[in-house]
Amino acid sequence: MRLTTRAAAGAAALGLLALAAAPASAAPRAGFGGAAAARASACYVYNISGGAVNIRSGPGQRYTQIGTLAKGAKLPCGTDGDSGTKGQRYTSCGGGDSWSTIRVNGRDGWVASECVAFGV
């Protein structure tokens, strides 16, 4: 009797493991834009610099400033997500030439990539 109880418990445990290991459906929800939309909607740009970061109309300091991202603030990622765009060199936040898109007032803006971090 004791052996039968252990066997039944073992079989039940294996059954639970088999259910947990079954792959989940990879189909996107209806009305959802797929993986790219999921990544964009879960992506935020965080200001990690020591002060406000200028948001520009293009990837460089020669482009018009269209806003600022306050120290410690976040805004949604732009259409490029967390991939940088090579543009004009800058010296802030250690310098570089990579610019990241950010959504501000319903459109894309660009911030110096070295001044921000990406997250959810």
From TrEMBL:
What residue ranges carry the coiled-coil annotation? none
Instruction: Provide the SH3b domain boundaries.
Output: 52-116
Signal peptide positions on this chain: 1-26
Q: Does the keyword Nuclease apply?
A: no
Protein keywords: Signal
Q: Which Pfam families match?
A: SH3_3
Protein name (Swiss-Prot/TrEMBL): Bacterial SH3 domain protein
